[in-house]
Every structure is written in C-alpha cells, then in structure tokens.
Amino acid sequence: MNSVSNTRRPAVLLLGGTSEAGAIASHLATHPDLKLISSLAGRVAHPKLPTGQTRIGGFGGVEGLITYLQQEKIQIVIDATHPFAANISRNAAAACQRLGIPLISYVRPPWTPQQGDHWQDVPDLEAAAALTRSYHRIFLAIGRQELAPFATCIHPWFLIRTIDQPDVPLPPNAKLILARGPFHLADELRLLKAHAIDCIISKNSGGPATYDKLEAARILGLPVIMVDRPTPPTNNVHTIEAVLSQISTELGRLITKY
Ligand code: NAP
C-alpha cells in the first residue's frame, strides 16, 4: 500500500483552544503522514501554544472558513474546541459539509453531580443571572466573555475570576481576580472561605482543570448554579484516542484515493 508520505501529506486543520486540542496536536504535529495546522480563536492574551504550526484568529464566518480550507487544501478538520464555543463548531460543520471534507468532532464529557452536590441546572447565563437575588456573595466562575448578563445584578456581591481583564462592564458590587487554571482543591477551599461565598455560578465545561471548585462546594455544602452547554455537534467522540483512531481511518481512506 502507498504511504501518504510518499505522495502529498494531507493537511489537517485542528480547531483548538482546549487542553485536549493541545494533546491532539502533540500526537499529530510530527505525524509522518499528515501536515497539521492548529487554530486558536485568540481569546487570551498569552495562549499556551500547541506543538507545531499554529494560526490565531477568526476566519470570518462560514464563508471565511471555506476560503481558508480551500486555500490551505485542508482534507480533514478536527473540531476540539471548548464545549461552549458553539459558533465555531457550527461553522466547521457547515463548511465541511459544503466542501465534502471529513469532520472529526471531539466533545469533552460534561461534569455530572456527585452525592453531596447541590446543583441547580439552568439553560443559559441569563437564567443564571435571574437567580442571583437569592444569594449574597457569589463566586462567578464563567470566564471573561459572557459576563454581560450579570452587569445589572445589583443585589449580590460577586467574586469574578477570569484569565484576562474583561472588556464588558462588571456588576457594581464585585471583586475581580485574574488567574489561570488548573486550580487545586486546597486553594479553592481557601478562596471560597476567605470570601464567605454562599453560591457558585459555573458553566458545565467539563474536564479536570476547573473542577476542584465544585469539589470545594460539595465539601462546604454550597449550592452551585450550573449552566448547561449549548447543543453539541453530532457524531462526536469523547476521547483523544477516538480522535486519533478516526484520523487513522480518514488517512487510510485518503491513501486508497491516491
Ligand atoms: P465561539 O462563539 O464558538 O466562536 C466565536 C468566533 O470566534 C467564531 O465564529 C470564530 O470566528 C472564532 N473562533 C472560535 N474558535 C476558533 C478557533 N479555534 N480558531 C479560529 N477562530 C475561532 O467561541 P468563543 O467566542 O471563543 O467562546 C465561546 C465560549 O467558549 C465562551 O463561553 C468561552 O468562555 C468558551 N471558551 C472558548 C475557548 C476558545 O478557545 N475559543 C476556550 C475556552 C473557553 P470567525 O467566525 O471569524 O471564524
């Protein structure tokens, strides 16, 4: 059988911004049978760059992504973006469908409540903001980009943690701390106790890096308002191994086409 490396190495676009995308890039950047390009949204000022070739910034919607895929002669797309990054996932699905390019979608498994957890699931951040009046001191751990629904919440005091400085107005009674995970249980317990937090608002991002605040909430008996994910892409896989296996399958298909 021909090896792809004996012909032209197919270009693979990896939509990233997650630790899992970084792990996939580590596996594939030196793969002899493909050329990998990682793509980051450019949301954080100093991103952890993945191994290998990387581009940063939006493509310009579906049409821009289609143009990019054509220009770079991309033959496989891997979507390993954050579970709340629904727009880029939707755009990737539309662009791949239009061009007939295989799309491998990785979705990080969501967190599920354990015994002792007091979670209230809400569909979106607006619904979470509507519940804030019931609490006095809220730890708002939802990142930087989606703080807007809380800007008019005047009743509770908020502890807000983001990686970079938010560029939207914060609620009037708030303290901002800038920090990047992973966060560890002892530190999360200390943070919650030091600020007398009585509720946490979290997105159901999944993964280990930001989970320990939920374990701390369980230990302290604190309620958690948990924001559900947007609808995930169809035909997704939940492990890095499954992504690598699908890549092998797609490469095999491409080899037989040459
Ligand atoms: P989004 O709403 O899905 O994407 C908005 C736009 O950003 C996309 O339409 C695309 O712009 C660009 N974009 C997103 N990911 C990209 C990538 N990997 N490469 C190139 N362009 C990309 O996602 P978001 O605005 O970044 O974030 C939405 C939610 O996801 C937030 O809750 C955020 O906290 C969470 N999140 C995102 C990331 C991330 O790396 N994106 C990481 C952690 C958490 P064009 O339409 O111009 O192509």
Automatic annotation (TrEMBL):
<comment type="pathway">
    <text>Cofactor biosynthesis; adenosylcobalamin biosynthesis.</text>
</comment>
<keyword id="KW-0614">Plasmid</keyword>
<dbReference type="Pfam" id="PF02571">
    <property type="entry name" value="CbiJ"/>
</dbReference>
<protein>
    <submittedName>
        <fullName>Precorrin-6x reductase</fullName>
        <ecNumber>1.3.1.54</ecNumber>
    </submittedName>
</protein>
<dbReference type="InterPro" id="IPR003723">
    <property type="entry name" value="Precorrin-6x_reduct"/>
</dbReference>
<dbReference type="GO" id="GO:0009236">
    <property type="term" value="P:cobalamin biosynthetic process"/>
</dbReference>
<keyword id="KW-0169">Cobalamin biosynthesis</keyword>
<keyword id="KW-0560">Oxidoreductase</keyword>
<dbReference type="GO" id="GO:0016994">
    <property type="term" value="F:precorrin-6A reductase activity"/>
</dbReference>
